[in-house]
Amino acid sequence: MMLAAIPLLPAAAFAVLAPMSRALRNSAKTVSLVAMTGSLVLALVAFAEVWSARGGEGTHAVFHAFLPIAPGHAFGFGLLLDPVSAVMLLVVTIVGLCVQVYSLGYMHTDERVGWYYAVLSLFSAAMLAVVLADNFLELYMAWEIMGLCSYLLIGFWHTEEGPRKASIKAFLTTRVGDVGFGLALAAMFALTGSFAFDVVLPASAGWAPGAATLVALLLLFAAMGKSAQFPLHVWLPDAMAGPTPASALIHAATMVAAGVYLVARALPVFVASGVALTVTLAIGIVTALLGGTLALVQHDIKKVLAYSTISQLGYMFVALGTASEVAALYHLVTHAFFKSLLFLGAGVIIHATHTQDMREMGGLRRKMPVTTAVFTVGALALAGVFPLSGFFSKDEILASLLRGGHYWFFAGALLAALLTAFYVTRLWVRVFWGTGSDHAHEGHRVMLAPMAVLAAITAVIGFASVAFAGFLGHEGEWPEVGLAAASTLTALGGIGAAWWVYSLGGVDTEALKARLKVPYDVLVQKYYMDALYEAAFVKPYEAAARALAAFDLGVIDGAVNGVATLWVRATQVSRNFDVNVIDGAVNGAADAVVEAGGKLRRLQTGRVQSYQRLIVGGLVLLLAWVMVLWPLLKAALKGA
Amino acid sequence: MPDVNPVAFVVLAALALGGAVMTVLTRNVVHAAFWLLEVLVATAGLYLVLSAEFIALVQLMVYAGAVSVLVLFVIMLTLRRREDSVRTRDLSWPVAAMSAVLAVAIAYVTRALPVPAPERAAQPDVAAFGHALFTRWVLPFEIASGILLVALVGAVWWAGRGEEL
Amino acid sequence: MRVGLEAFVMLATALFAVGLFGALSKRSAIMVLMSLELMANAVNILLVAASRYVTPATMDGWFFAVFSLVVSAAEIGLGLSLVLALYRKVRTAELDRLDTLKG
Q1: Number of H helices and number of E strands within chain A?
Q2: At A60, phi and psi to the nearest 5?
Q3: Res A271 pLDDT > 50
Q4: What ranges do the domains of chain C cover?
Q5: Are residues B80 and B134 part of one domain?
Q6: Using CA atoms, how far apart are residues B102 and A621, in angstroms rounded to an integer?
Q7: Average pLDDT in the A504-531 region?
Q8: For residue C9, which of B36, B96, B106, B124 has the smallest C-alpha distance?
Q9: Maximum average pLDDT range among A19-23, A119-123, A194-198, B105-109
């Protein structure tokens, strides 16, 4: 029951806040924070439980077998607490609580802060349900609720066109992936008759390779939508239109990582397939490079971070592609902390400068020392600099690539790391170095405190890498010196290059842009993918919609109206028929009865003698029949 | 075949039938009562013709005596004025035709019925009749007297409740 | 010329029909009762005659006639007392005025 309370606490907060978000405007944050703190405490307890029982089976509580989904099959609504979900619980609750505390400062002027906290609570509940689900169907349900919350938060400022469009784009794009999830569910149910992890995953080893590949690729497609992997990544940069803390929680730390979690959970299916692993690897590396290159040319601080997120998620998919769920999940954890830290820092900066354009920023290190410090920690972790957490998790992914013999992919990953170091340094220099933004001011304590917490975790969690692997039941090892040297050199190379370009002015960027106009335009246009989608999907869809609308108005409506007109005519005819024939018949019958009754009524005179006369008349008729008619009839029949 | 005087029969039958017709045709109720009396007396004569002296005597006593007087009493009691005794004729031709048809039908049916011959010819006498009445027919006789008693009490009760009704 | 049973049957039938006509057509309750007496009388004539012709020794029909007389006497007595009670109640003895049961 304690386990169920972890997601149910924020869910209850949502249930309380949602219908009265306006009335509870001032107390919404309290309700939400209390619920989230409760979840965090319970998550810590759960983690301690699993920690003390590591090596065991973990806790698996099935609450009810209900929802008879097919004859002989019931859907068990259960919670699974194992090392993976325990870690995920901690990540979600810690980041969630930090973001909620941070939002106290960031959102306190907003009119609809009650609704903001309600949706944030619902999202936390859904994400916690995702990591606690013990079967794919339950996971899918929570997954969809997360998508809804993402939509609501991206479009939080729905009076403006940008957030509105972005929320629709995000929702529809992830829905494309979710179709794959639904098909995967159907496929796995057809194969095993169950959705439960402990039924489907062990059984997958016995599936035909085609079946395993099908299920794995469908799940991968779902994960690509949610985790913004190429080619379904287009929604994430636009999603930055939402409130920055929500971006930190949903679009950096948790929801976008749910795809990684899903693939990590379903990894036995991918291993059974083999092909699916290679596809995952390819998609991961493409996404990592794509995100890294696109981050180079962005001027919006949040968009840089968004492409960075895409790139880092691609990194995680690379790890998954080597069947190393430890590396993937470890990078997920470290990334959740440092990327949410970076987003929260970006939020403070945006608050201070009232702009998201880095070209209008600069020199903030003097005005905002605390922000600069924690942001630097996050940026170095992202760049993969020892001894911060990003170094260890990135190193594990690179190691897993080498172990698998994927040397080309290893080279790609190193290139992505170089790009990462480069664009994060570019961002750092643009924002904190140089001059500009003289009127900026340091953020409020309530915003700085959660950032400090996240920075501390980011700084130290790297040393938990071996313990983390052991906790998940794998042999953990420290980075090899050679590999560590290579990745550190890469990171330092990226940082140095960026420093040289942007701080020291080693290269005239404008001249470079002019020289490399074609590739630069390609990047600025995001590899023309939005344009491609616009041309391939949006425009044809709109054209089809217009055609259908015309068809609707002209043909369908015409037909409907024609039918309606005909119907009106028919009802008029019917009415006349009704009035004249039916009513006539009914009234006629009634009149006939009344008339006959009136006539027969005269028989009922109440006078004794008239009755007597009837009796005698009847007797006469009877006699006539017996004596005359019947003998005559008999004679006639005999004669015939 | 009993010896029935044809002349007596024809005269008595004519008297009875004529009296009956007069009873229903007369407009005066009092006259009708007297015509009824005439019919009942003629009937008694017919009983005598049939050698049924005892029944003829009962007929005279009960009908000609008691019933006629009773009828006349009731007529007197229900007539407030002398003129009330004269009434419309109340003739209904459909009813007359119906009655006639019925009579013809009955006559037609009974004409075809066989009349069984008596097992032995005998001359009825009152002593034998009275003996049989109080031996073989004693139970029906007592029942009849019970009926008469009940009717008597009922009639007295009904008619005698008087004005408080 | 012998008088057969048929003659009595004819006479009784005629009397019965006359009585029936009176019972059905007369409006006065007393007249109806008198007509009923005529009908009963016709039946009695038939009983007495038939018995005389068919069972002259046992006189079965005569006993029936006696009982019929008794019942007729009871009927006329009750009938007349009814007419009297009716008259007291509604001040009339006209049957066509008594249509309380009219539907």
Answers
A1: 30, 2
A2: -135, 105
A3: yes
A4: 5-97
A5: no
A6: 10
A7: 72
A8: B106
A9: A119-123
Question: A619 to chain B: which residues are within 8 Å by CB?
Answer: 102
Q: Which chain A residues are Cβ-neighbours of C36 within 8 angstroms?
A: none
Give the whole-angstrom CA distance, residue B83 versus residue A226.
Answer: 119
* Interchain contact B101–A (C-beta under 8 A): yes
User: For the domain that residue B39 is a member of, what is the CATH number?
Assistant: 1.20.120.1200
Q: Does C81 touch chain B (CB under 8 A)?
A: yes
Q: Residue A74 pLDDT more than 70?
A: no
Residues of chain A with pLDDT > 70, as a percent, come to 95
Q: Is the pLDDT of residue C101 over 70?
A: no
Question: Is residue A196 within 8 Å of residue A77, measured between CB atoms?
Answer: no
How many domains does one find in chain B? 2
Question: Rounded to whole angstroms, how far apart are CA atoms A121 and A127?
Answer: 10
C94 in contact with chain B, both atoms CB, cutoff 8 A: no
pLDDT in tens, C83-94: 888 888 777 777
Give residue C13's pLDDT: 92
Q: What is the pLDDT of residues A368-420, one digit of tens each?
A: 888 888 888 888 888 888 778 888 888 888 888 888 888 888 888 888 888 88
Q: What is the spatial distance between Cα B103 and Cα B101, in angstroms, rounded to a whole number?
A: 5
Within a domain: B158: yes
What CATH number should be reported for the domain whose range is C5-97?
1.10.287.3510
User: Are residues B72 and B141 part of one domain?
Assistant: no
The number of residues in chain C equals: 103
- Cis peptide, bond prior to residue B116, ω within 30 of zero: no
How many residues in total does chain B contain?
165
Q: What is the CA radius of gyration of chain B?
A: 20
B65 and B1, same domain (yes or no) = yes
Instruction: Using CB atoms, list chains with 3+ pairs below 8 Å to chain B.
Output: A, C
- Adjacent-strand bridge partners of A78: A62
Q: How many CB atoms lie within 10 A of CB A86?
A: 25
What value does the mean pLDDT take over residues A5-30?
82
Contact list, A621 vs chain B (CB under 8 Å): none
CB contact (8 A) between residue C99 and residue A605: yes
Give mean pLDDT, residues A56-75.
60
- Alpha carbons within 13 angstroms on the beta-carbon side of residue B129 total 23
Residues 6+ apart with CB under 8 A from A459: A377, A381, A387, A388, A389
Q: What confidence tier does B11 reach under pLDDT thresholds 50, 70, 90?
A: very high
> Could you tell me the pLDDT band of residue A55, with boundaries at 50, 70 and 90?
low
The ipTM of this complex is 0.88
β-strand partners of A66 = A75
Arithmetic mean of pLDDT over chain A? 83
Judge whether B120 lies within some domain. Answer: no
Of A211, A234, A314, A224, which is closest to residue A262 (Cα–Cα)? A224
Task: Verify that B8 and B72 share a domain, yes or no.
Answer: yes
Per residue in C35-66, pLDDT (tens digit) is 999 999 999 999 999 888 888 888 888 999 98
Query: How do A73-81 and A59-70 pair as beta strands?
Result: antiparallel
B139 found inside a domain: yes
Whole-angstrom distance, CA of residue A111 vs CA of residue B50 = 128
Which of B86, B109, B136 is a domain's end point? B86
The verdict on residue B151 lying in a domain is yes
Element spanning A62, H or E: strand A59-70
Q: Do residue B14 and residue B63 come from a single domain? A: yes
Residue span of the structural domain in which B65 resides: 1-86
Q: Report the pLDDT averaged over residues A360-374.
A: 80
> Token pair for residue A133?
């689900």
Q: What is the CA radius of gyration of chain A?
A: 37
User: Is there a single domain that holds both residue B80 and residue B130?
Assistant: no
End-to-end CA distance of chain A, in Å?
Answer: 98
Question: If 0-12 CB within 10 Å is exposed, 13-18 middle and 19+ buried, where does residue A617 land?
Answer: middle
Q: Does the pTM of the predicted model rise above 0.80?
A: no
Largest CA distance in chain B: 60
Q: With an 8 Å Cβ cutoff, is C32 touching chain A?
A: yes
